[in-house]
Every structure is written in C-alpha cells, then in structure tokens.
Amino acid sequence: MSTTLWIIIGGAVATYLTRIGGHLVISRFERVHPRVEAGLNAVPAAVLTTLVAPAVLSAGPSELAALAVAAAVSLRGSLMAMFLAGAAVLIVLRHFIG
Asked: Model pTM greater than 0.70?
C-alpha cells in the first residue's frame, strides 16, 4: 500500500481513538460538573476560531469579502447557507480577482 493510504488510515484511527476515549472518560461519571459541560460546549467555537483566525490574518480581498458575506448570512440563515454563501463568494471572487 502507498504511504498516502497509510497516513489516511493512521489519521482515521487516531481520530476514532480520540473520540471514543473522550466518550469513555465522560461516561464514567454519573453527573458532569456544570463547568466541565460549559467547557465542552465551548470546544466547537474554539476549533472554528483556530481555523478562521489564520485565514483572516493572511486574507486578501476575496477572502475578506467571503468572510463578511458568511458572517452576514449567519445572522439570519442556517449553518449550511452560511458555508455555501461564503464558498460561492470566495470562488467567484477568486475567479475574477485572482
């Protein structure tokens, strides 16, 4: 098998073990402390921030426009609408602006 396939398999196994490990640890407790629950609820926002922040800091006009459109759509639309609108604006602007 190729090296790429082994990397994909290794990444999949690592992801699975991380997810199942967290579930096994939390399932041992009868009641989760409210602070722990609040911390776990904040994880998706923290992960999204780590993905978006570097793009914002090194963004050009196309990326900034796409982020602005995605932010505007997120105020009224669904999560899928936000992603689709941002991606569409980015694709169009990168095609015309570069």
From this structure: no
